From TrEMBL:
InterPro entries (UniProt xref): Arsenate_reductase-like (IPR006660), Thioredoxin-like_sf (IPR036249), Tscrpt_reg_Spx/MgsR (IPR006504)
Pfam families on file: ArsC (PF03960)
Record NCBIfam families: arsC_related, PRK01655.1
Originating species: Exiguobacterium alkaliphilum
Family under the similarity heading: Belongs to the ArsC family.
Protein name: Spx/MgsR family RNA polymerase-binding regulatory protein
Length: 132
């Protein structure tokens, strides 16, 4: 079974919606609160691997910490960037939902459905088609 990990910020309403939705769908997950638990270097690398636009997808450009370091971020090595993010977890968008093959940043009820196991999605589609 693929493990879904949800990286959250405590006061984020989208994080709460995501956690509630996963519970309603009975999808097992691990929640990691970014300010309390952070993330490992490997988790950070895996997130980057799954994004379409790298750090642009993960970092919140509205945060003051981003604005203060924006010109330096492009020059950082991966290890330096990880250290910066680990020291300033508020710079990450939230929630970040990942498994081995997928990533979703933010809450979208339509997009999060990809985390429903495939066999469950197929069964739901068959039920819908049978009821027509």
């Amino acid at each position: 079974m693929v493990t879904v990990t949800v990286f959250t910020h405590t006061s984020c309403s989208s994080s709460r919606k995501t956690i509630d939705w996963l519970r309603e769908q009975n999808i097992p997950f691990i929640e990691k609160k970014l300010t309390d638990q952070g993330m490992s270097f490997n988790e950070f690398k895996d997130m980057l691997r799954l994004t379409e636009n790298g750090t642009t997808d993960l970092l919140s450009v509205q945060k003051s910490v981003y604005k203060q370091a924006a010109d330096q971020l492009d020059e950082m090595s991966l290890r330096e960037l990880y250290s910066f993010v680990a020291s300033h977890p508020q710079i990450l968008k939230s929630p970040i939902v990942v498994d081995d093959n997928r990533i979703q940043i933010g809450f979208s009820e339509k997009e999060i459905r990809t985390f429903i196991p495939r066999h469950d999605r197929i069964a739901e589609l068959k039920r819908l088609l049978d009821n027509k």
